[in-house]
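# step 3/5: fold
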Amino acid sequence: MSGRKSIERVASSCRFIREAIVEEVLRPVSVPALPGPHLVLACGDFTQLPDRLIHYWERVSPESQLIGMHGGALLLDPASPENQAHHQLDAVVYQIRKGIAAKARHGVRFSGFDGFVDWHCGVADEHGMSVQRVFSSALRAEDYFSAEVAPDLPYSQLFYCGTQCLHGLSVALEHPQAKGLTFTFNTEEMALFLETYRDPVVEQ
């Protein structure tokens, strides 16, 4: 992808994110605590972990477990470009089932599964994915997880976004030192937003 097209893709994606926040399709994680231990699939990039710790991880039970893999929940979408190119699906499903079984041996039962996707995401960049394609992939990941991996484990959609897309929004002004913030979203609301959103720049 050319440099100009890449810049346009990023700018368009940021407009989508900002509108989704304004329309409250993306909502900041603000609950004081998440009940019970969670199994979490997210990118393991340590440059993002401090902000995740501030805005998400501190709300999770210490018995929770992280599966850190590049691409996060994108790896649970069989149709994602990363799976089409590098066949990561079997590996991530193995890690999820291994995590569930390992905790069960110690009498711990997960109360939920949290699938993270990010922007910017190195895996998405590698494949030239817009954030709309990232969210579409996240929706398919939830469908696959709920049908094929762990149907009895509630799935939560999480989105970590760098503040370069959030400049001036109230949510960013509340956390002036943050490099990124974590949001949650409802599957049905995001699906509808993806269907109806029109980029104001492209529409001009």
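# step 4/5: annotate
The first strand starts at residue 27 and ends at 28.
# step 5/5: archive (pending)
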